[in-house]
Amino acid sequence: MAEAVVGQLVVTLGAALAKEAATYGGTLLCKEASALRGLFSKIRLSKAELESMQAYLQEAERFKDTDKTTAIFVGEIRGLAFQIEDIVDEFTYKLEDSKHGGFASKMKKRLKHIKTWRRLAAKLQEIEAQLQDANRRKKDYAVTGRSASAARSIREGQALHFTRDEDLVGIEENKERLIRWLTGGGDGLEQSNSKVTMVWGMPGVGKTTLVAHVYGTIKENFDAAAWVTVSESYNIEDLLKKIAGQYGIAVDIANVEMRGLAESIHNFLQGKKYILVLDDVWAERFLLEIRNFFPASNCASRFVITSRKQAVLTTRESAFAIHLGPLQEHHSWLLFCKGAFGNADDKECPLELQEVARKFIAKSEGLPIAITCIGRLLSRKLPTSAEWEDVYRGLDLQLVKDVIPDAHMILKVSLEDLSYDLKNCFLHCALSPEDFELKRKSIVRQWIAAGFITEKDERKTVEEVAEGYLAELVNRSLLQVVERNYVGQLKHCRMHDVIRLLALNKAMVECFGKVYNGPADGAFSVDGARRISIQGKTLEHLSRSGATQLRALHVIDNYIDIDLLKTILTSSSLLSMLNLQGTWINVLPNEVFDLFNLRYLGLRDTEIKSLPEALGRLQSLEVLDAACSKLEYLPKSVVKLQKLRYLYAYSAGGADETLEILSNDGVKMPNGVHHLVGLRALDSVQATPELLCEVGALIELRTFGVYNVRSNNSANLSNAITKMTHLVRLEICAADMDEVLWLEGLCLPPTLSRLCLVGQIEKTTIPQLFSSWSHLNNLTRLHLTFSNIDEDTFSCLCVLHGLRFIYLMKAFEGKRLDFYAGSFPNLRHLWMGGAAQLKQVVIEKDAMQNLIELFFADCPELKFLPDGIEHLTALERLGLKDMSEELIEKLRRKRDSDESSEDLMKISHIRNVAVEMKGVLERIR
Hints:
Helix content: 25-40%
Number of helices: 28
CATH superfamily of the domain at 154-324: P-loop containing nucleotide triphosphate hydrolases
Structural class: alpha/beta
Largest sheet: 18 strands, mixed
């Protein structure tokens, strides 16, 4: 992890040096230039030193656990890197600060800063001497013979350590599938050209256990069988030697060259029925690299791969795959009892221990390695409720320290394979509370503001890089998917509790960050911590001094007295992230606005009603997230925040709660919005004439939400939006339900993915407006409310072939709704509400062939199910809310009768049919 700290610092130093040319482009005082030249020289030397050190640290991280001298050295480097980062942040702030104000103010600051530049340069020189001294001591006291390869062999030797007969619980179904695939006994393998089977999942979930058991069962069915562990660091030649040895190929392994070795393996296996298990594969191109060493014809081969990375599946040949998830509850219980009561004949849990036993099982969250190790720990304790409760109270600490060293090694190897920026992103997630759902958009913004994300490709924005990192952590099974949105994109994810505990221990040891859970943690000091997550309901034992190195403070609670944090904020002058999401506060302490380095201010779901003019002092601010707060306006000084990228300030509700959205007028913005040219998101603001004249300057916007739009402002709004060529999400809400949105001049960019229009649209302009959207191939979600659509104009929407979700609320005024053959080929969700005149819905064959959810609400004249609903073969859910009593009673009656009916036959293929009347939900089928 020191490599992660240094890696991020190298990027920071590079940004500092980039300011050198700009600084000398102006007129500098003689003494000022001399002082700055000396400081830049020291920064350049520090960057060169750290770049050289970074490569060493990347390798040292792999074996510092087995070499105390290296561990001490790595720790020293980490601490010195933190000091350099503090110096660079102070330098950057004061350099920028000296550019603001009038001539006299600037001169005063520049003269004052001369001493600062010299002080910082002297401090860097002192740190450089400490780096050299640490390096000398490391060389003097290093233990010879210790190498990374030795450490790798230690890790590789543990690979089969997890395969135990007593762990074989809950694998029956996957075991049978795997055997069928490997022996050609079913599932189409004998008719398939696929020779590759993959088992993947999170660390410790039992991949090797499953494959080892199956391998032992079927290997006698093959003429040749081999098992080799690959791991994250592998050498092709060494791997081929292992394979040859496993197959018993008689070659001089010590002297043969790789080409001759490959030929020997190829010739030996030619014509044979063979199996090769490649355990713990990390590289995505690994199979492609070795595939040509093995015969492709005249033999029956099977390759089995285990990996924690889903992307290893990406090969040119098809592969069968098993994704192993956590054990189900009953399987967890069986495995736990085998471990805890292994010495008993019946291996059953006594009645008096069952309650606390279930607490242990819940803690393990179905992770086999955690269940097994906890069970073994308890098997050595007295089987009494008091003894077990005592173990449970200290379980988190024991899990990390000594109960599951194997799991610790698994996570250690996973972290070693991550780049430095991915390591930081992963540990940042661990600071969230247990079972916390991480929202993709929020976590991406936090990573960017924390400086973990850098643009590595001019074709990708930092947002795209960050989303790629999140997908990579899911691919590596370090994060679990909780929910995907209507287009299959990751929406929410979480970290398994055991993985989180191990990651938190890593974060604490490496000084990345730590969590305060309340009085149960005992005395808790923030001294030396870089990031603190406060998750307890009281700060009783929290020492609020010594926070000079603090960079991020997360307060995650329903209630907290913000005054208790003033001491921390006062001493944390370099704080870059303050996240108060969900806290019941209504005013921010003044100390917040002295945080010159603050880049992220999270006020989402708080009671904050206003922000002072002092907000303009936060010149480094990149994210102001006050969504779902009580803010009604923003201070004039907000337009001074030149680095602002994301501004969220809408109140509770949103586009999905259409009937509530009209009560939200948006946050009132001051004049001067056109200065915020770096904004990527502006959501949601009140549409004043002044704002609509200025907002067109924000051409980098990806998200724009504008409320309280009046008819006479429509032209200015359309002109402004036309200039936003990168828009992905757009929400326009009229001032009231009778207000007409004149949008015939609106030109939407092809990048648009989500569009929400709340307000009337003049009927005569609808065909032209909808036709102008035909180029929106990326548009996947459409919300229309009060739109005056009828039978004829609805068909104009069919130009939107990419739609996945349509939401119409009081938008359709016709009596008949037709879906023609071929219409909406990608649509998966259709919600229709408030269609007071709708009497008939007709669905032709081949219309909406991918629809999985159909929902009608408040359509009192619709007394029959849609004609042709039986054509929707993919439909999984049908919902009816506050519909005609005649339709609902018809479904209820025919459901309860023994006679079959045409209506029920139409929906017999739909798995979930539910009705809701007057707040009472009822399942029909």
